[in-house]
Write a structure and sequence with these properties.
The chain is α+β, with helices and mostly antiparallel strands. 48% of the residues lie in helices and 20% in strands. Among the domains are: 84 residues, no CATH class; 128 residues, Band 7 domain (Tetrahydropterin Synthase, Chain A, 2-Layer Sandwich). The chain has 11 helices and 11 strands. The strands form 4 sheets. Strands 8, 9, 10 and 11 form a 4-stranded antiparallel beta sheet that branches. A 3-stranded antiparallel beta sheet has the order 5-4-7, with no helix packed on it. Helix 5 packs antiparallel against helix 7. The termini are far apart.
């Protein structure tokens, strides 16, 4: 071997007749780093945590295996098992006709709120309806595997249900007196649709937010409402004033009545004098009836007769 090769490589003679080539230092560091990376990947892909408001659906090569509860869990590493977290204990929300900025749920808002809020009522008028739907995921397996895109499906179903219910009512019912009835009926119908499609979701609440007429007639509608309120005020206010006047008059009459304060000085301890015999017959009819109804009437009558006989 030449001198240059000897400088580049160093031969380590171990046993007699054997020669071993010593590896450079960077090769050893490379091997050590490789095994460290493998160990880290093994730990990362084997253990995982499930939040308290969720469960984990575990799939092995794409097939459903089990559902894990919250806590630290184990699965086969390197992509053999895959865990997908589903928030089953959290109440989620969908917004229709408007969108809240910086929402955590990607399916909460709408890309076309103006088209969702415009609806036609039963009397062929237009109303701008904004509402929300609050729901929960009650079956994570159905939610993930039975329907493709369950949130998009429920958004389309909620919009169809609301349009159907609003189309059966007048614009006055939708805007004023029929809001609660619309909420109850739409929730029941939407829950029925969710069970029919088997999306693994339950509807908790349907609530109307803002219901207004079209923007072109908003000013006229406000004037009509103001006129109706003034009419009701003109009817209720005189009635309330009349009732208050009668109550005040009655209170003033009671205040003018003399009230005698009862003390020891004006309380008489003398026995009441027995009325004369003429009072038994010459009094008024009401007074005679009162005397005859008393127990002492006949005693006084006998005393009067005895005294008159003695005379």
């Amino acid at each position: 071997m030449s001198t240059e090769k000897r400088r580049k490589w160093e031969w380590d003679t171990g046993e007699p007749g054997q020669a071993r080539l010593r590896r450079p230092p960077y090769v050893q560091w490379f091997v050590a780093g490789f095994w460290i990376v493998i160990l880290v990947l093994l730990l990362v892909t084997t253990f995982y945590t499930v939040p308290a408001d969720s469960v984990a659906v575990v799939q092995r090569f794409g097939k459903y295996v089990r559902t894990d509860d919250p806590g630290l869990r184990f699965k086969w590493p390197f992509g053999i098992d895959r865990a997908q977290r589903v928030p089953v204990r959290r109440q989620l929300k969908m917004e229709f006709g408007f969108s809240t900025p910086s929402a955590t749920n990607p399916y909460q808002g709408s890309d076309e709120p103006d088209m969702e809020e415009a609806m036609v009522t039963g009397d062929l008028n237009e109303a701008l309806v904004e509402w929300i739907v609050q729901y929960r995921i009650n079956d994570p397996r159905r939610y993930l595997f039975d329907v493709r895109g369950p949130e998009e499906t429920m958004r389309a179903a909620a919009e169809a249900v609301m349009r159907e219910i609003v189309g059966d009512r007048t614009v006055d019912e939708v805007i004023t007196i029929g809001r609660q009835e619309i909420e109850v009926e739409s929730r029941a119908l939407l829950q029925k649709v969710a069970e029919q499609y088997e999306v693994g979701m339950s509807i908790d609440l349907v609530q109307l937010k803002n219901v207004n007429p079209p923007r072109q007639v908003q000013a006229s509608f406000d004037e009509v409402n103001q006129a109706q309120q003034e009419k009701q005020r003109a009817i209720i206010l005189p009635t309330a004033n009349t009732i208050g006047w009668f109550r005040g008059r009655k209170a003033r009459r009671r205040a003018r009545l003399p009230r005698r304060k009862v003390t020891r000085r004006n309380v008489s301890t003398k026995p009441k004098a027995t009325p004369p015999c003429s009072a038994l017959f010459s009094s008024s009819t009401r007074k005679r009836r009162t005397l005859r109804a008393s127990a002492s009437f006949w005693k006084r009558l006998a005393t009067c007769c005895r005294d008159s006989g003695a005379k």
